[in-house]
Amino acid sequence: MQAFLRQIVLATSCALALAQPAVGQTIASKIETMGEPASLQFTGLRMREQNGLLRVQAELTNQDTAPQSAYYRVQWLDDAGFQVWDDEAWKPVLLHGAQKLTLQIVAPTTKARDFKIQFSATNNRPLSQPNGSMNSP
């Protein structure tokens, strides 16, 4: 009887292990930045399916007291990572000092199962130079 119970527990454990994703997705894995934003940062990201469409809420935070502007667009992907919709136009966004803003984004097609947000801040950190020199060629 104990051997039978051990087999059930082992089979259940294996089934649960297979059902969980191997690697958790992070905010950084969903955001593609063009440059390194000086004071804007994604601080939250949620996704769910509703009526067959993917809905995304992305929380953007201005960590400075001055207003900051940026642009974003979304690439909609299928389960295999292939793009399922044409490139969107860049959308402008303005955050006042110390403001948090939640972007509400809805997929344009039911084929979308994943996404990547492309993001470009107007104010980026300067590129670091390996020898500290800012001379151009």
Descriptive account of the structure:
The structure is a single chain. The protein is of the alpha+beta class. It is 16% helix and 39% strand. It starts with a helix and ends in a 16-residue tail after the last strand.
Number of strands: 7
Strand order of the largest sheet: 1-7-4-5
Specify Rg, calculated over alpha carbons.
Answer: 21 Å
Helix content: 10-25%
Please tally the helical runs, counting DSSP H or I stretches of 4 or more residues. 2
Keyword list:
alpha+beta; four-stranded mixed β-sheet; 137 residues; globular; 16% helix; single chain; 7 strands; disordered C terminus; three-stranded antiparallel β-sheet
Layout of SSEs?
Layout (H helix, E strand, L loop, with lengths): L1 H18 L7 H4 E3 L6 E11 L2 E10 L5 E10 L13 E5 L4 E7 L7 E8 L16
Parallel strand pairs: 1-7
Antiparallel strand pairs: 2-3, 3-6, 4-5, 4-7
Question: What does this entry show, briefly?
Answer:
This protein is an alpha+beta fold. It has 2 helices and 7 strands; from the N terminus they run ααβββββββ.
